[in-house]
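Entry for zinc ion complex. Fields follow.
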Amino acid sequence: MGEIPPPTPDAPTVLLYSHYDVQPAGDEKLWKSPPFEPTPVEGGLRARGIADDKSNVIAHLGMLRAFKGRPPVGVKIVFEGQEEYGSPFDDYPPTDPERFACDAMVIADLGNLRPGTPTLTTGLRGASEVVVEVRTLEEPRHSGEFGAAPTPCSSCSRPSPPCTTCTETSPSKACAARSGPARATPRTSSAPSPASRTACR
Ligand SMILES: [Zn+2]
């Protein structure tokens, strides 16, 4: 982190964020130039992480240089090194809110619409993590008579009760393979067929 205090007491403070860590380069034989040696290509630079997110670090520093290190606002700079790994920034700022307090935040972690076109993104989808709990019947039931009620086994990964077809304790994949033709055919008859009795759902 770095900080430039506001030039006047009423000047706002802007927090600038970027990260300098990158994803692994993968199989280097597939690269046309060394992944960690920035190489000029068609008017730009090619290297691992050059767009995500090292060039954006340079954009922040370029702004400070443009103002000769004396911007008209207070500046807080956060350059993170674990964004790609799984950022600790979900948890860390709330433990020290004053350190991150600001009036506006500029997150430089996105690309331009095309090379040479400065682009300001004003909204993102964000991300969420959810836990889905599925409750099923205790044992497989005929789909024609019991409709959409989920039966165990292929509907969930619950190990108990075991699948009646294959007796695997984690039977989803095994049952999908063994009962493929039966599962692929919609069952419209209300009369239990051999397939509906033995398929996982
Ligand atoms: Zn990024």
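NOTE: The radius of gyration is 28 Å.
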